Write a sequence for this structure.
């Protein structure tokens, strides 16, 4: 089945993965629906209404918006067309909580999402409850669901999982702009890396790239196609903060020769001296995390680096970034450590359509295809990605300057 | 006594007035302090924490910021230097809630005030209570207060009253950016104009302009000086929405010949077709007010017009705007209707220092003088100005493009 | 006679003076026409076609444009309506060389004037000759000229003299942007100041401000009106480079307390450390002049300072800038040194209409009135102003950030 | 041999090709040098000094700059290090005419190249003659030239040929901004397309991509590597103006569903309604060409389209753009019509390093590698590309919004 993921205007999100298709199949759609929806509420729970209303930059969205938008998605694409007698909660919400679906009608301007103090957080909670009840009723007799309706539910759940990750990355960005650096969860700690030694060696070979089979995937993962990959060697371990501190101390941010031309322009314009969310206090590097401001741990994987920085670091190290095809083949081999669940990993591949790719018709076809320009592919998943949402063919993508996601890198070598 | 008012970075506010000096004298400083502080809380009461955190443009500030900043003012300028043993509520707040007092130390960037979700509204309420208690104690024995300390209290109260007006104008702007146009107070109605007929005729004469005597005033109201004023005739009534609708319907916004060059550039760049907060719905003009979206009342004074619009309207009408000196003399005569409490009235006077003006030394000297450029003077006061805060010598000022205050106009004629 | 001066889009020019009305009357219109036109050609003579095509910023114009635009002015306003049988040189030029006269039709975008390599300089010379011949013929029988036609000629000559000054200021700006700092005329030297000591004391008195009598003046110099001026004392001498070096060395550009808020923002954004066209070379201040790069002469009047800088300097010196009315009365007294012919002198007066001012109808009415906002008045004239073009009532005006004209200052004191 | 090409700051140019290595070998380096240098002068000959000084946008450069910069290249990289006793023509020119070689020292700001009226065109001609004489002397005894010195000459000639193409594209852009649309050469006509029917079918196969052998190539054409290409069918003919008019008339520029998200944003922001340099006059489409303004020829290949437009057109046509690898294999087959000498052809490939690519050390290593982001690859060559400068492995690249080069497209189909 081909499915489609919502991507956001300027800089699409890492929001995509699947809600563990096996789980869906094991527990049924209604149980999966309840589980995913409850997880969103759990993620928002530590945040006050004040926290939930703020938008710290055009690329980020308020928590309240994420909560309402994911709800609107079910209302717009599932309930309105497929739930007879369904009554809209409030018709004005379609305007406020549409993201970028041109075909679904006009939208509130993206950079002004932070101005919507009303409807308030309690109203959005009521909106969620209203829609949840209607979906629950629709899914009561799962066996009789039309396959295309079940497919929409599955997409909606994947869509919501993407926004679950964004809830975390976006509030972290907002908190990082606050001089007092609040903690989302004071107990939160960054997951350490495995620091697996060595590299996975891929000899030249023809491999199938992209998604096959009947599990869920996004449209940008297909068509599956054959490609020649290798020879290349890909590090099993991720680049760490310790590695990055050496880069900083060696003057990496000052040496134009290490950088792409656009990258060095970004360094100068943005004043980058370290990864995103880092601050120097008392002569030592700290980082704003979901657990608040903490000293940088040299053993943890580096995070919040842009593609420009990842590329410069690879050049500094005399290495390369892997292509997305190389990454996919290596990950599929099972020998690649920390492929999932730590940091998204920049590849050297621009985000382009696979041969013969064609976006689907209709509003849901606006998901991925129209963002296939000016962005780079990331593979794997991060600590903020919901469990079960990752797979080897998954393609995440961001502009080369983006730093507010949980983004890191691993290195590769080409045998000569 | 010379006193000084805080003005804000880009576009100083109409925040200035005096807290009814006679009231201060009658009831005493402590009673006045309690009254003004309570009024701020009353103004914020209809707003949720979500409402209070949002900043809809760099020129506006969040309600929570206004509440905290006015409190910081007493802490910084009154308690720290003059209350022995006072303990700061939280030293980080000085950074967050300083507005533009360079001499008082570094500040949080003005356009990012809307990102401060924490400290939350409850913490700011506690901050207010903490400072209120300390000031209350300081003022217990009013008779023994040093005059310069009493002067700081008086400035602080005037300062807070300015921010009371801004609380209303800024939240109105935020709500006007919300497609659903929430109401601050559903019962709120615009005050009708007196529609007084005729004009006040001022023959040529030498008058003293500026503040004299021992009541409170801001530094920009002095030095008092003599000026030749008149002959001129100033309308007793304000320009109304009905007048403005005629201007719109006559193509006023399309006729470059009516506009200052910079004004017409603003019309084109901003897409102005009507006063601020106006929206056309169902073929009829409505306006977002503190009471929500209501039809434009043709009998009410026009409001939310920029200087550019006021100037173009005067040209369209074959009339002129009065100068601030003409306005002051006319208002002093007592024959001028709606001088106070309806809308601030644009004058044709640029905001300049009076002859021999010199700003005071120290942080409180940063109030008015440094904004004497690129702004126009408004006289009178608006419906949002706290009672007792207005006087005939009061000088409000905004850039010629500002529209989010309660700003209107009256017209004048020069006899030929 | 009321007349009107062309002002330029964003930042009107110091283009102002009259073409010596007495000379016009003495020698006749045709002789004056020939003389003024020849002077423009003489000014352009040291410049190559390459020099003449370049536009160094939107506020400046190419020499070739000035030469063609002044010619277009006579063609558009004099020959087309008043010279029977006149044939346009090339109708496409009206589009290219209209400046900002909305009523005269559409115009080429101001910031793109530097892209017009063709028509080339030789064609523009031919255009000038074509128009000169037709005007010359029209003026052959001067006695029979209708007064309104003679008035247009007079305006056109004043207009061209304004552009003569701009030819010099604009090419100086272009050369100042060139790392090799070419000289317009290697022999050129800045005129030294008289360094007259003392001050002109003006006691309080009622004076008539603005132009009276039958000589030529611009519309913004009227209506003449009575005003109360003084008491004030105005320095007879101008502020010098030596004075300014002391300001620089005392940290004047770093001390926010000396500056208007907008002024300090300009200092920081533009990186101002000294007046315009100054460069530090080999540890010493130099300045790009029409004679090339030369060391700063401490005895010469300071030049190329913005209003912001003039205002900050006055505050630094514990002094004030005079108002335009004070300047006018002092200049009329004949005791004021260096009033004309050295540098334009910033006043503390915003550029506003005189009481009862009304712009004339028609395209020529677009001259001055529509620029009466966001600008400050300068009085006097500069070394680049054509002889005979200055008078005591003349009002020049520029935005407070402008530095590329020959702008300086003198100081005043208010007796206390 | 690995060689490196100069690319320009924001949007590198189509300037690259080789100066016909076979010709170099046949005639010798000195003859090739004389020939290439003479061709540059011939291209500049129809342009006046005024034409040559202008810079119409930051991405374009003045003709005079191209003439001087290519000369500086030989002085900087060939004569200074390898010609004993060579005397610089004028040391200030290194600052003015360095393009973006950070390692070669500071440079004049790119967007201000149009302000350099002096040195004048004649001086630049003298500069060229000075350098030509020195190079000529150096090449007199070609047999004894060190291979690395010969390599620098060869790079310099290729570099100059790139700028030859830019001389034409940049002056065309400048002329297109001129309302009177001057002609570079009134006799110039666009080369018609072959309109070859049918498609080249490529079955799946492993091919070597990139440059092999000992002829000249740029560093970005290697390392040569194996890739799986096909199955795909690539049209032998180019898309024509007639095809494009159908796209326009079908509302192609208004249909968001056809466009990449960034592409439609460009359409709206730039107001694109047709390819670059097109103007509607008298209800019919015309285009500014090197021969002046002419009616659009429906049989000619479409030109001056951005990648965004090419991509939207392909989607509109239900087709795809070929990848650069597909293009290279098809071109190598010899069956591809109009591969060279008409228009550069957008591919769907982002400009990325080939596997294992590593930029060379030193200033000449700044050529291509640092631009491998945010750009798309074009293949082939255009009518403005110097003869002999093209080859099948050549990679040109521009940002997806660029339209001022001679850029068109051909379409492909994936068999299903």
């Amino acid at each position: 089945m081909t499915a489609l993921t919502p991507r956001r205007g300027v800089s699409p999100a890492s929001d995509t993965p699947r809600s563990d298709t096996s789980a869906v199949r094991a527990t049924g759609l209604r149980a999966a629906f309840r589980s995913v929806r409850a997880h969103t509420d759990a993620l928002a729970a530590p945040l006050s209404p004040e926290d939930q209303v703020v938008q710290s930059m055009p690329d980020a969205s308020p928590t309240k918006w994420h909560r309402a938008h994911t709800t609107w998605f079910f209302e717009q694409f599932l309930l309105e067309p497929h739930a007879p007698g369904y009554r809209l909660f409030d018709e004005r919400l379609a305007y406020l909580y549409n993201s970028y679906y041109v075909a679904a009608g006009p939208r509130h301007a993206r950079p002004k999402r932070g101005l919507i103090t009303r409807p308030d957080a309690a109203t959005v909670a009521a909106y969620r409850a209203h829609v949840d009840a209607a979906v629950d009723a629709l899914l009561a007799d799962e066996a009789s669901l039309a396959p295309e309706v079940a497919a929409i539910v599955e997409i909606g759940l994947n869509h919501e999982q993407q926004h679950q990750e964004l809830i975390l990355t976006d509030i972290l960005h907002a908190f990082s702009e606050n001089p007092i650096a609040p903690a989302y969860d004071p107990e939160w700690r960054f997951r350490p890396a495995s620091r697996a030694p060595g590299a996975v060696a891929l000899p030249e070979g023809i491999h199938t790239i992209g998604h096959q089979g009947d599990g869920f995937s996004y449209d940008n993962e297909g068509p599956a196609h054959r490609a020649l990959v290798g020879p290349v060697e890909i590090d099993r371990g991720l680049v760490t903060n310790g590695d990055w501190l050496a880069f900083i101390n060696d003057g990496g941010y000052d040496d134009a020769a290490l950088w792409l031309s656009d990258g060095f322009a970004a360094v100068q314009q943005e004043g980058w001296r370290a990864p995103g969310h880092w601050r120097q206090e008392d002569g030592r590097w700290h980082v704003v995390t979901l657990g608040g401001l903490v000293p940088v741990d040299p053993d943890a994987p580096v995070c919040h680096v842009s593609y420009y920085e990842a590329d410069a670091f690879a050049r500094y190290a005399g290495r390369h970034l892997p292509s997305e095809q190389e990454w996919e083949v290596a990950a599929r081999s099972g020998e690649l450590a920390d492929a999932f669940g730590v940091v998204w990993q920049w590849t050297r591949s621009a985000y382009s359509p696979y041969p013969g790719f064609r976006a689907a018709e209709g509003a849901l076809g606006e998901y991925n295809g129209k963002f296939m320009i000016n962005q780079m592919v990331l593979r794997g998943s991060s600590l903020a990605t919901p469990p079960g949402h990752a797979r080897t063919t998954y393609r995440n993508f961001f502009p080369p300057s983006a730093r507010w996601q949980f983004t890191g890198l691993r290195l590769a070598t080409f045998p000569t």
The radius of gyration of chain B is 21 Å. Residues 1-22 of chain B have pLDDT under 50 and may be disordered. The interface with chain A takes residues 48-54, 56, 92, 95-96, 108, 112, 114-121, 174, 177-180, 182 of chain B (CB under 8 Å).
